[in-house]
Amino acid sequence: MKIGFPRALFYFDFFPFWAGFFHHLNIEVVTSPPTNRQIMDLGLKNASDETCLPLKLLSGHIQALKAVDWVFLPRMVSVEAETYTCPKFLGIPESLLSSVPTGIPVLSVTLNWRKGQRLVLKDLQTMGETLGKSKIEIKQAFYEGQKWQEKFQKTRGAEWNFAPTNLEWPPEPERLKIALVGHSYLIQESYANLNLLKKLREKARVELVQHVDQIEIETNLLELRKKLFWSHSKQIYGAGNKFLADPEIDGIIYLTCFGCGTDSIVQELLSRKARQRHKPYMVITLDEHSGEAGLITRLEAFLDMIERRRVHEGYVSTHGERLDCNSNTL
Amino acid sequence: MKVTFPHMGNAWIVIQTLFESLNVEVVVPPVNSKRTLNLGTRLSPESACLPLKLNLGNYIEAASQGADTIVITGGIGPCRFGYYGEVEREILRDAGYDYEVVTLEPPNGSLLGLAKRIRFLAGTKNSWTKILKALRFAYLKSVGLDRIEDLIHAARPRLPSPLDTEKLYEEGKERLAQTMSEKGIFDTIQWVQETIRERQVNVRSSVDGKYKPLRIGIVGEIYTILDPYSSMGVEQELGQLGIEVDRSIYLSGWVGNHVFQGLVPGYRSIKSYPGYAKHYLPHFVGGHGQETVGAAVKFAREGFDGIIQIFPLSCMPEIVAASVLPKIQEAYKIPIMTLIVDEHTGQAGIKTRLEAFVDLLERPTMLRGIEQTRGEVLGVGGR
Predict the structure, then answer these.
(1) What's the fold here for domain A2-154?
(2) CATH code: domain of residue B304
(3) What DSSP string describes B289-352?
(4) pLDDT (tens digit, 9 = 90+) per residue, A54-107?
(5) A268/B94 touch (CB, cutoff 8 Å), yes or no
(6) What's the pTM value of the predicted model, to 2 decimals?
(7) Inter-chain contact B94–A230, Cβ cutoff 8 Å?
């Protein structure tokens, strides 16, 4: 039996769990190829116009799955207590059924960690019935999956190589250190983000959300008066907040996509903090029309600005007129 | 302390009543207008949804009337409305407005925290019994408001002069806003009914009463369907085109579910919708996404002629609903149109689309409906 796993959206965070899970059940998992022109076009044509780029890509990846017995589209309602994923995750698979190639059934399961592990297991066992697996097999597979996922998180994805970017640069203190924050499915989606991560790594040392310890993220969330209720946003805000306070970090780039609802809130909160702390901060908004030249120009301008700021230490003569007299970012 | 709150259609009448019966000073912000939206848009994140922009505009306009405390409701996701209070607080502070923002929700699930917040708003003079009484009265008023609104929905396509119907609606709202007794609410509804009955007598004899109005169900994101400004008055526009309108969510239905946690049903309870949606969207998606789908199914089964979905640009739950609606359109052979609104929405554009949609619906029924009469307003609305 072959299960088709689209290489989009939840793939970047939770694939190890599902890989371990299905591996234990002796089910082969086939992923769609990395995003390419054709997949993107398929997605744009089929997905609803209003939805965001990552979901359009998911639609393309679903259509790119060939010769599989099932298309696997889990409904990841929640991945930890007290949080949700994005509402668009909750609408999977129904909102994407039209993308599934005719004749291939959809395998789905509702994963809701808000209700605790027992019910997650129960939901998985219901799915197991469809696959003809016993409850005990599912339980063991679940633990196997968790083991894989834990290892993945501990090694920060080193062995999984989702984004071929683990190039090690010699530690030069001269090089700028830039933090790139945003959803994993944008930062590691190198086709859609026009290879931003690689481009950035060529010019500077890069810190990602995944590089921050969970404990540090939690402590950086404490100052919020109300808990954020999206798991991804918690990671992004917690890590971003840590980067803001870190004097080693020279600047922060927030990668988002057009129409992202959770980012519209979190980005606003972070940008305000960045302003208060006088940290260089740039937002890059992706959509299907993003052009490479525009991205490179903005990236270079941002890095140049930081470079200059380093030399001048942000001190600008108070005498006379200056161009940025109305800006408080310096 | 002067309390203010964001606008959402007729909700101001209910909220004003609530605070006034507790002797709390309240500032009702000027109704949503181009100015409100401009003021709000200037401060908002560009990709935030329309309600946030209008909310901020309301606060700024209320600030110039001396308001210093904001009351809004909250939520724990996954719709971003749940985080509005926090973001609005930050934005207003940075913009130099000294506001206290009170979110009416149990902080971290603590009911004691909620009680403290209510106590903060109500002051020390009001006993809990009085607060509960005020809540009950405000709720009754919201039900009354919804009944009047529904009567007007039925009256618009049936009464001869559109202008008089709007005037009746305005006066009904006015009377309801001013009354402070249960009898007053009841009397107002009766008065509206009587007025409609009188006007209908005149119609019956004339010739132009000889057709049955088409029915369109309006579904979608709650703010945009409850607030006529944000949707450019879709309901009024449709009513004047001779369409009878019904809506998925009414104010008191939302109040009953969201504020009272389902303890009271409200007018047209929204509880049944997830059941209708089951086949198309079996899981909730935050906001009212599942309700939108459920209501669409319900309207389709009740034989409505068309459905219009309205939501603000980038609304996450409604996008999910929108991608499911084509299935319903196909299954029930009912035309569904989606209107997405943001700060650039223009009246003319909406009007053109509505007229085209109505034309499309009218064509197949032109012959069929010629023998039928319009029916009476009171037989249709406000039940």
Answers:
(1) Rossmann fold (3.40.50)
(2) 3.40.50.11900
(3) HHHHHHHHHHHHHTT-SEEEEEEETT-HHHHHHHHHHHHHHHHHT--EEEEEE-TT--HHHHHH
(4) 999 999 999 999 889 999 999 999 998 889 999 999 999 999 999 999 889 999
(5) no
(6) 0.91
(7) no
